[in-house]
Structures are given as structure tokens and as C-alpha cells.
Design goal:
single chain; mainly alpha; 6 helices; elongated
Length: 195
């Protein structure tokens, strides 16, 4: 076994001009530098991901937004959103589901037309006052609903970014720890090679 290691060390020394111990120390030092970077970036990603998820939760909770109870949901809502029935919206996935819930209700306000379409129709020339007021009321409802829906989707997006940051952060922390262990083995091997 030692004969094989010495032969490998001689090959490395011939090709690089470095003995095996020096080569092991260089690679191990580089691994430690990379490991430190991974650990620092990983820790920052974990902190950022945790901060963002807590921020989303802290912004949603005081709004006291709740899904309707299961019995008050339509059959379609029960099938797609029933798992959230009666729950308060405090997480990104709940916010996305609530945005879907809002979209379903907004579709009935003015036959599926958007705020922009309804508002434009309310400002059209030649409308009687009652029709204009009715369309403007629908436009106001659509504006509020679409704004709340956008806020919910924004919360979902930031929750998703935060979750990705957490996974990446934990992955980098794990990789950094593995690199430190490998670098320590490399340093130990360098000592044996020079002894």
C-alpha cells in the first residue's frame, strides 16, 4: 500500500514539481476557503429565507383574512380549496389559494370582465346614469378584489423565493461542512506524505 502511495507521490512530483504533501496542503487550503464561502453564503441564505418567510407571515396575520368555512364553499371551491376551509391566511401557499378563491368570485362580478374593461365601459359615452353607476360600482369591486389578489400573489412569490433561499442555504451549509471534513482529511494525508 505504501509503495502505491509513494509511486503516486512521485508521479505528482514529476508532473508539478511539488511533492505530494505540498499538493495536498494546497488543495486542502483551497477546500477550506471554498468551505468558508459556502458556509457564510449558506448562513446568509438561511437567515434571508427565514426573514422573508417571517415577514410574509407577519404581514398577512394582522389582516385577519380567512377562508370561508367548508359548508359555505361552492362544490368547485370545496374540491380545489377545501383543505384551507376556515383557516386564516398566514403562509405563501395559503395566499396563493386565497388569490384563486378571489379570482373565482371576481369572475361573477361583471361576467368575467376585468377591472380595466369594466372601468372603461363605465366611462363610455352615451350611458344613462343608472348603468354608469352600476358599472362603476362593479369596477370598484373588481379594483379592490384584483388589488387584494395581487397582494396575495405577491406574498406567495416572496414566500417561494424565501423557501428556495432556505433550501439553497441548507445545501450550502451541508456542502461547506463536507468540504471542511474533506480538507481535514487532506491535511492529515499531507502530514503522512511528508513524514
Amino acid at each position: 500500500m505504501q509503495t502505491t502511495e509513494r509511486a503516486e507521490a512521485q508521479i505528482v512530483e514529476v508532473h508539478t514539481g511539488l511533492d505530494r504533501g505540498a499538493w495536498d496542503r494546497i488543495v486542502s487550503a483551497a477546500a477550506i476557503v471554498v468551505a468558508v464561502v459556502f458556509i457564510l453564503v449558506g448562513a446568509a441564505a438561511v437567515y434571508g429565507g427565514s426573514f422573508a418567510r417571517n415577514n410574509v407571515r407577519d404581514r398577512l396575520a394582522p389582516e385577519q383574512v380567512f377562508f370561508a368555512p367548508y359548508g359555505q364553499m361552492s362544490a368547485e371551491e370545496q374540491a380545489t380549496l377545501g383543505q384551507y376551509a376556515g383557516q386564516q391566511v398566514t403562509t405563501g401557499p395559503q395566499a396563493q389559494a386565497f388569490a384563486q378563491y378571489i379570482a373565482g368570485h371576481l369572475a361573477f362580478v361583471n361576467d368575467g370582465k376585468t377591472y380595466a374593461e369594466t372601468s372603461a365601459a363605465a366611462r363610455a359615452d352615451g350611458l344613462d346614469a343608472q348603468t354608469q353607476a352600476e358599472l362603476q360600482g362593479k369596477a370598484d369591486t373588481l379594483f379592490k378584489g384584483e388589488t387584494l389578489r395581487s397582494i396575495m400573489l405577491n406574498a406567495y412569490a416572496w414566500w417561494t423565493v424565501a423557501t428556495i433561499a432556505l433550501y439553497v442555504g441548507f445545501g450550502l451549509l451541508g456542502a461547506g461542512i463536507v468540504l471542511v471534513v474533506l480538507a481535514l482529511f487532506g491535511i492529515r494525508h499531507a502530514r503522512k506524505a511528508t513524514a
